[in-house]
Amino acid sequence: MEVLREKVEEEEEAEREEAAERAEWGRTEKMMRPVEVRKEETTLTQEMLRDLEKKLSEIQIPISAELPAFTKDTIDISKLPVSYKTNTPEEEHLLQVADNFSRQYSHLCPDRVPLFLHPLNECEVPKFVSTTLRPTLMPYPELYNWDSCAQFVSDFLTMVPLPDPLKPTIKREEKVLLKKYTIRPPRDLCSRFEQEQEVKKQQEIRAQEKKQLREEEERLMEAEKAKPDALHGLRVHSWVLVLSGKREVPENFFIDAFTGHSYSTQDERFLGIESLWNHKNYWINMQDCWNCCKDLIFDLGDPVRWEYMLLGTDKSQLSLTEEDDSGINDEDDVENLGKEDEDKSFDMPHSWVEQIEISPEAFETRCPNGKKVIQYKRAKLEKWAPYLNSNGLVSRLTTYEDLECTNILEIKEWYQNREDMLELKHINKTTDLKTDYFKHGHPQALRVHSYKSMQPETDHVIEFYETARVDGLIKREETARTMTEYYQGRPDFLSYRHANFGPRVKKLTLSSAESNPRPIVKITERFFRNPAKPAEEDVAERVFLVAEERIQLRYHCRDDHITASKREFLRHTEVDSKGNKIIMTPDMCISFEVEPMEHTKKLLYQYEAMMHLKREEKLSRHQVWESELEVLEILKLREEEEAAHTLTISIYDTKRNEKSKEYREAMERVMHEEHLRQVETQLDYLAPFLAQLPPGEKLTRWQAVRLKDECLSDFKQRLINKANLIQARFEKETQELQKKQQWYQENQVTLTPEDEDLYLSYCSQAMFRIRILEQRLNRHKELAPLKYLALEEKLYKDPRLGELQKIFA
Predict the structure, then answer these.
(1) Distance between CA 293 and CA 263 in Å, rounded?
(2) Where is the CEP76/DRC7 peptidase-like domain (predicted)?
C-alpha cells in the first residue's frame, strides 16, 4: 500500500497547486528518511481505503496461466527435484506480494501491458522470475568475459518465434479427439465434364497467379525495400542489461542472448523497457520511452524512475549529488533516534533451480547435439562442435540468390584443428572459383590458394607468407600459357617475373612438367630500385625473348629525367653453321642512352654485358622450371591433404589422442605382463624334489628328511658355484690387467700419445670392473650363510614337511 499512499499524496499536492519540483523532492526525501515522512503524511480514512480495496479487487489481471512451453513429452518431470514441483512458504509469500504489486501497477498504469512476474515452470508451478536466476561460478576461463560467455549462451539457445508476438506466452494446443462414429459424406452427383472444365479453369488461374507472383518477386527484388511493420514497437523481446561500475565496465550496454552481440543503450533498435529483474529484485521502468532507450537513466536506486518491488537490504541506493546530500536535516534524525519503525522489508528467497553444471564435453559441444542451423534472409548459417566432423568443419555460411534459398551463390566454410592449417574455404558457385585460406605453419608456407581445378597448368593463384620463404615469393599466378610471380625483400631486388609458354611438343610418352616441360617463349623480370647503383646502370626491367633470340633492357629513370635508358641485344649462337666463332659486332647491340657514356659504346663492354645476360637468362629459365615443379608439388600435396584431412589433437586431450591412448595401454599391458612374469619366476623351491615322488602320496619321516637334505645341498652347491663364478671373473680381469701392464712396460718407449691414452682408459675400466667384482664376492660371502639359514628355517616351517616338526618337537 506504500505506492497507493504516495499516489494519494501526489494528487493532494496537485490540488493544492504545489510545484512539481517540491513533489519530486518529497518522494526523494521519503526514500532517504522514511520515518520522518510517515509522521508528516496525511493518513487515509477508512472509507478511502475500502474504496481502493474494492477497486483493486475488481481489477482482472491476466495471469500467465497459458505460459508453459514445456510438456511431459519433452521433459521427464519425475526426475526433477522437489523445488520444481512445489513452492516453499517464502515463495508462496513472494507470489502474494507479486500479485498485490501487479494489482497496484494495473490500477496506477492501466494503459501499460501486464507485468511478467510469475510464469509457470516445467511442472506447471508458478515461479517468480527472479528466483529462476542462480549465479554460478564455472571453472572455464572463457566464461569470465562477457563476449565469450554471451557467444557460448547464444550457441546453446535456439530462437523460436512466439505464436503471439505481443505476449510472452505460449498457448497449449488442445488435441481434437477423433469420434468413433462419423456421418458418411453424400454421394457426388456432379458432372465429370464440368469437373474437368473446372480443373482446367483452376489450372489457368494458378498459372496466371504464378506469373503475377513471379513478376511481383522480380519487382521486389529490384526494389529490395522492406515492408512497413504493422507490429513495430509492440513485439515482446528480452535481453541482458550490463550496468557499468563493477569489473571495470565503463558504460551500460545491452547483450542479445540469441546472437551474443552487444549493443549500446543508444541503439535505435531497442524501443523501450517495461521491467528489469535480477536474482535479488524486480524493477518497473517509470520513465517515458518516446525517444527509445536513449534518454533512460539506469539508476535503479531512484524510485521515481525505477519502481522496485521488494524493499530489502539488497536494494540499490540512489546516487545523490553533494547539493542534495547537504540539504538533509540531521536534527530530525536525532529526534527520532529512539523510535522504532515497523520493518516491512522482504528479501528474495533462494533460487529453486539446480546449480548449473557443464561438463567439459558439453562445454566443447556447445550447440545441442553438436550442431546448430540458423536461417537468415537469403543465407543459412550452420555450426558444429570441434572434432564433430572428420574434416574439422566448424561453421558454414551459405548465401542464396532467391528468397526460397534454392540457388546457391557462395559458400564459406570455417575449419579448426586442421593439420594442413586450413582455416577458411570460399566457394563461388557462379564462377566455380574456390579459395582456401591457411594459417601460419603450412609445409609450403601457403596463405591463400585460389583455383577452379586441382589439375596442373590451369588457373591457379597462390599466395605465400613471405617471411616463411627464403626466396621472398609472396604470390604466384599460373594459367595454361603464363606464370607470374611477385617477390619482396630479395637481395637482388627482383620484384616481378612473368613467363610465357608455347605449345608443348607432343611425345609418345606421358608428358609432364618434369619430363616434357612447356617451352618458354618469353621471360619478363622487373626489379626494385637499388640505391647503391646509379639509375642509368640499375636495370628496372629485362625481357628475354627466347624464341626471337633477343634481350631487352630498360633502366630506372632518374628523378631529374623524364625518360629512361634502354638497350637491346641480339643474342646469336657462339658459332655459326660452319663451326666458325661469331665475333661481337656493333649491330648486335641497340641502345638508347639519356646521357651517353664512352665506356658503354665499346664492344668489350657490350660483349661482357651480353654474356652476363646469357647466364642470367639460363638461370631465369631454370628458376621458371623449378617454379613449375613446385606448383605440381603443391597441387599434389593439397590433393593428399584434402583426401586425408587429418586433424591435430593436443597431447593433453587423452580422449581423442589415439597415439597417446595406445601408448598408455601398451605401457599398462607391459607392466601387467612383467608382474605376471615376476609371479611366475617365484617358483616353489620344493617343486623339483616333490616331482620325484608319486603325486598325492603322504611323505614319511624318512622322505621328509631326505627332501630337506637334498634341497639344502642343492642350494649350498648353487651358492658355491656363484662364488666360484665371481672368483673366476675376478682372477681373469686381474690377469688381463697384469698382461696389459707388462705390455706397456715393454713398449713404453715406442708408444704414441694415442696408444698411451688407450692404455690409460683400459686400465681405468679394468680397475673399475675388478673393484666391482671384489665387492660382489665379499657381499656374497657375507650373505651366503644367512641365505642358507633362512632356507633351512623355511623348510622346517613348510607344512608339506610336517614330519620334520615331529622329529624336533
Answers:
(1) 12
(2) 236-309
Say yes or no: 134 and 108 in one domain: yes
The grid coordinates listed for 479 are 594459367
3 in any annotated domain: no
Instruction: Report the distance separating Cα 281 and Cα 95, nearest Å.
Output: 13
Statement: residue 322 has pLDDT above 60: no
Same domain, 582 and 700: no
Strands (E), 471-519: 473-478, 482-487, 494-501
Q: 3-state SS of the chain: helix, strand, coil percent to 5?
A: 40, 15, 45
Range of the domain at 268: 89-160+238-308
Rounded Cα–Cα distance for residues 598 and 605 (Å) = 10
Tell me how far CA of residue 68 lies from CA of 84, 87, 120, 124, 274, in angstroms: 13, 17, 6, 6, 22
CA distance linking residue 425 with residue 438, whole number of Å: 9
Q: Which helix (H) or strand (E) holds 555?
A: strand 550-555
Nearest to 142 by CA among 356, 355, 366: 366
Quick: pLDDT tens for 760-788: 999 999 999 999 999 999 999 999 999 88
Nearest CA-CA partner of 38 in 261, 238, 332: 332
Please tell me whether residues 633 and 762 are part of one structural domain: no
- Give the three cell numbers for residue 567: 638497350
Domain presence at residue 626: yes
CA angle, 411 then 416 then 420, to 5°:
95
Q: What does DSSP say about strands 539-545 and 240-242: parallel, antiparallel, or unpaired? A: unpaired
Q: Measured between alpha carbons, how far is residue 773 from residues 35, 234, 737, 762 in Å?
A: 100, 98, 14, 16
Contact criterion met (CB below 8 Å) for 425 and 441: no
pLDDT in tens, 272-281: 999 999 999 9
User: What does the alpha-carbon distance between residue 412 and residue 259 come to, in Å, rounded to a whole number?
Assistant: 19
**56 is written with which cell numbers?**
483493486
- Tell me the C-alpha distance between 493 and 539, whole Å: 10
Separation between Cα atoms, residue 49 and residue 1, nearest integer Å: 10
